[in-house]
């Protein structure tokens, strides 16, 4: 409802795909994510803030 979502590798593949589709359609405006999206998923983002991509 607020247009905010999260995305990470622990999600089911169909859930990740749904979040990505909603972000592309601009139904999700803010996406909080792990490095799963920093590593090659092409999404139309206006602003990207990376805190780091180091794996633990």
Structural notes for this entry:
There is one protein chain. By secondary structure, the chain is an alpha+beta fold. It contains one helix and two strands, in the order βαβ. The longest helix has 12 residues, at 13-24.
**Helix content bin:** 10-25%
Q: Taking Cα atoms only, what radius of gyration do you get, to the nearest Å? A: 11 Å
Number of helices: 1
Note the beta-strand portion: 5-15%
Structural domain tally: 1
Unreliable stretches? none
* Mean pLDDT figure: 83
Instruction: Give the tally of β-strands.
Output: 2
Q: Helices and strands: which structural class?
A: alpha+beta
Q: What overall form do the CA principal axes indicate?
A: globular
Strand order of the largest sheet: 1-2
- SSE order, as H and E? EHE
What composes the largest sheet?
2 strands, parallel
Separation, N- and C-terminal Cα atoms: 32 Å
InterPro entries: Hel308_SKI2-like, Helicase_C-like, P-loop_NTPase
Transmembrane segments: 28-50
Keywords: ATP-binding, Helicase, Hydrolase, Membrane, Nucleotide-binding, Transmembrane, Transmembrane helix
Protein name: Meiotic cross-over helicase
Compact summary:
With 56 residues, this protein is an alpha+beta fold. It has 1 helix and 2 strands, in the order E-H-E.
Primary descriptors:
2 strands, alpha+beta, 56 residues, globular, 1 helix
């Amino acid at each position: 409802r607020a247009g905010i979502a999260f995305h990470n590798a622990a999600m089911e593949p169909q859930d990740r795909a749904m979040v990505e589709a909603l972000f592309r359609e601009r139904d999700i405006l803010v996406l909080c994510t792990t490095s799963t999206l920093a590593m090659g998923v092409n999404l139309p983002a206006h602003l990207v803030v990376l805190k780091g991509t180091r794996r633990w």
